Amino acid sequence: MIPAVWLVWQGQHGALGADPVNVFERSLGLWAFRFLLACLALAPLRRFTGLNLLRYRRLTGLLAFFYASLHLLAYVGLDHGFDWSVLWADMTHRYFIILGMSALVLLIPLALTSNALSMRLLKRRWKFLHRLIYPAAILAGIHFFLSFKTLNSVSAPYLAALALILLSRLLPRSRTGNGT
């Protein structure tokens, strides 16, 4: 929550530069992607280092959803003033927006079922449902890359981290390990 509070404070004090709406919107999206990467990185971190931070997976996942929702709200409300015709025209010309919205849609059932009751009720289906994090992350990564229009010093490290995290899922698991 601290990054959002900091961004609002910066916005209130004119510290977001010449295009504060764009900076605010992009910063929210960047924080959403950071939290999504952090959520995804916890299992490989445990697998390869033994450092068990999985108890933070729910929190980082929910923070990713929260910031992605704020990112969308800033785009729709601040950037387009809730003008649906302008929003629709923008989406038809910049398809990366649809990819970002699709990623957020995939995160909705994950956020709604990130509780003990849902785990108990859904049983094995819960784990299957929560695998939606991977296509959501891929869509978010493509959205992130296309929003920059180029691979640069800002986008490259995040996309490399996403690629490494996803590739780590393809590596064989040790027979005696505690990997997830």
UniProtKB/TrEMBL annotation:
Gene Ontology terms: cellular component: plasma membrane
Gene: msrQ
Domain Ferric oxidoreductase: 28-140
Cofactor binding note: Binds 1 FMN per subunit. Binds 1 heme b (iron(II)-protoporphyrin IX) group per subunit.
Family statement: Belongs to the MsrQ family.
Predominant cellular place of this UniProt entry's protein: membrane
Cofactor(s) annotated in UniProt: FMN; heme b
Subcellular location: Cell membrane; Membrane
Keywords noted in UniProt: Cell membrane, Electron transport, Flavoprotein, FMN, Heme, Iron, Membrane, Metal-binding, Transmembrane, Transmembrane helix, Transport
Transmembrane annotation, as ranges: 27-45, 57-76, 96-117, 129-148, 154-171
NCBIfam families noted in UniProt: PRK05419.1-5 (NF003833)
Subunit structure, interactors included: Heterodimer of a catalytic subunit (MsrP) and a heme-binding subunit (MsrQ).
Protein's name in the database: Protein-methionine-sulfoxide reductase heme-binding subunit MsrQ
Functional description taken from the UniProt entry: Part of the MsrPQ system that repairs oxidized periplasmic proteins containing methionine sulfoxide residues (Met-O), using respiratory chain electrons. Thus protects these proteins from oxidative-stress damage caused by reactive species of oxygen and chlorine generated by the host defense mechanisms. MsrPQ is essential for the maintenance of envelope integrity under bleach stress, rescuing a wide series of structurally unrelated periplasmic proteins from methionine oxidation.
Keyword presence, Metal-binding: yes
GO molecular function, one term: metal ion binding
GO BP, one annotated term: protein repair
